[in-house]
Specification:
By secondary structure, this protein is mainly alpha-helical. It has 2 helices and 2 strands, in the order αββα.
């Protein structure tokens, strides 16, 4: 202890005290100034590094947000194209409308074969319809051939019956003429 209480005294030309945890040495103004200068330099370095980090982070965020915005805009564009080119439901006609893109009737391709059966509401393909028309045509040709054969047989029977009746009429006419 040095001096009296409430008196202001200076200690000059003191040696540098040891600075460590638990030290009871007095420290000099030079030691305190050096510590303060180091803290100022550290604070400046930290502040500069933080500003640089903050600028870099903001730049990355801006680029990321910009990139994300561009990606979202690109996705929106693709969805819009898809909506424009996709087969859309048309409320006014209560059906899917293939003319929605061009304004003209358009074909729908690569459709799976639908069920062709009683109460089916599946769409059928051109191949299914062609198969049906071929089968129907072949069946109609067979029916027509069968009908022609039947008509020919009937005609032959009529001709034969007519010839027989004509012969019987002639015979009957001769018998009647001979008896009178």
């Amino acid at each position: 202890s040095h001096g009296k209480e409430n008196d202001k005294n200076f200690i000059k030309n003191a040696g540098k005290g040891d600075v460590y945890a638990g030290s009871t040495d007095a420290i000099t103004g030079d030691q305190l100034y050096t510590t303060g200068s180091h803290l100022d330099a550290l604070s400046y370095s930290f502040s500069t590094s933080f500003d640089s980090f903050s600028t870099t982070l903001n730049s990355l965020i801006d680029k990321g947000v910009g990139s994300l915005s561009s990606s979202v805009a690109s996705i929106d564009g693709e969805v819009s194209k898809l909506q424009q080119n996709a087969l859309q439901w048309n409320k006014s006609i209560s059906a899917y409308d293939a003319s929605s893109v061009t304004g003209k009737p358009a074909k729908i391709t690569q459709v799976a074969d639908g069920r062709v059966e009683l109460n089916s509401s599946d769409a059928i393909t051109g191949a299914q319809l062609f198969s049906l028309s071929t089968v129907s045509k072949d069946n109609l040709v067979n029916v027509a051939s069968s009908m022609n054969l039947s008509l020919s047989t009937i005609q032959d029977s009529v001709d034969s019956s007519s010839a027989s009746l004509s012969s019987q009429y002639d015979t009957l006419s001769k018998d009647i003429s001979n008896n009178f």
